């Protein structure tokens, strides 16, 4: 039986993850606190790993019940801030680090997803992470996990099991994790971020080319191959209806999919 083995949220978009045991569904279909904040420059554009590799050198730790974030540049002394009452101080600290004006924007309903059409949690299996890590010399599972930054990790299934959670068309595929009803939408197109080490920012030469070639080579028979205009895709984007707001995903929840039963 597939089970939800791990849950990760990223309170500030592009910064470090927090592993949690349960996560509430918001009205906008996101996990509570996931990408709740984002860094924005003076022109309104996101400051993220796609834009600058300097993001990888930032470390962040969160105490969400206390609404605290502790920021540091690798090797420097950490500084703690209140997420609600010290946003101007956070903005000043980030602006000093990046060398241009940065503010912290907040959205407690949908967060700031990359895919606004599918703002639900992204999903991948542990076996997929293990397989993808094996494609690169000296890559660990944790290293691949931190590169892909997926919310939900599924155990008890083979690699790429999650490729059964979308259809050959654009029609959503219903499935359930515990008490929460979700819809699988499409395989997630990756960006430049996974090509770099999540802590040093150092790139792996030909990462995208190697990843895409291996992905095509190992595409399982249950995957809808027509959804892969590019094979630089892994994990699944989801949507969650507003009717699910207030329900929670919990580690240990079983997963049921009519298509797989």
From TrEMBL:
One of its GO terms (molecular function) is pyridoxal phosphate binding. Coiled coil: none annotated. InterPro entries: MoCF_Sase_C (IPR005302), MOCOS_middle (IPR005303). It holds the Pfam family MOSC. PROSITE patterns: MOSC. Residues 87-258 form the MOSC domain. This is MOSC domain-containing protein. It comes from Myxacorys almedinensis A.
């Amino acid at each position: 039986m597939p089970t939800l083995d791990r849950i990760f949220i990223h309170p500030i978009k592009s910064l470090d993850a927090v592993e949690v045991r349960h996560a509430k569904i918001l009205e906008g279909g996101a996990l509570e606190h996931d990408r709740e904040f984002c860094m924005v420059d003076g022109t309104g554009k996101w400051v993220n790993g796609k834009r600058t590799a300097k993001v990888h050198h930032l470390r962040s730790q969160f105490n969400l019940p206390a609404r605290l974030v502790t920021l540091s540049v690798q090797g420097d002394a950490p500084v703690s801030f209140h997420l609600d009452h010290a946003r101007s101080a956070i903005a000043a600290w980030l602006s000093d680090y990046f060398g241009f004006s940065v503010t912290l924007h907040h959205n407690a309903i949908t967060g700031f997803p990359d895919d606004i059409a599918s703002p639900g949690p992204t999903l991948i299996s542990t076996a997929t992470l293990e397989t993808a890590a094996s494609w690169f010399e000296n890559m660990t599972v944790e290293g691949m996990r931190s590169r892909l930054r997926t919310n939900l990790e599924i155990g008890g299934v083979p690699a790429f099991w999650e490729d059964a959670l979308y259809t050959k068309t654009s029609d959503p595929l219903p499935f359930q994790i515990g008490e929460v009803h979700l819809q699988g939408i499409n395989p997630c197109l990756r960006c430049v971020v996974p090509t770099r080490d999540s802590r040093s920012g150092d790139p792996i030469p030909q990462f995208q080319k190697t990843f895409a070639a291996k992905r095509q080579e190992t595409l399982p028979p249950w995957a809808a191959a027509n959804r892969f205009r590019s094979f630089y895709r892994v994990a699944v984007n989801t949507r969650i209806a507003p009717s699910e707001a207030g329900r929670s995903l919990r580690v240990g929840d079983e997963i049921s999919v009519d298509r797989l039963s």
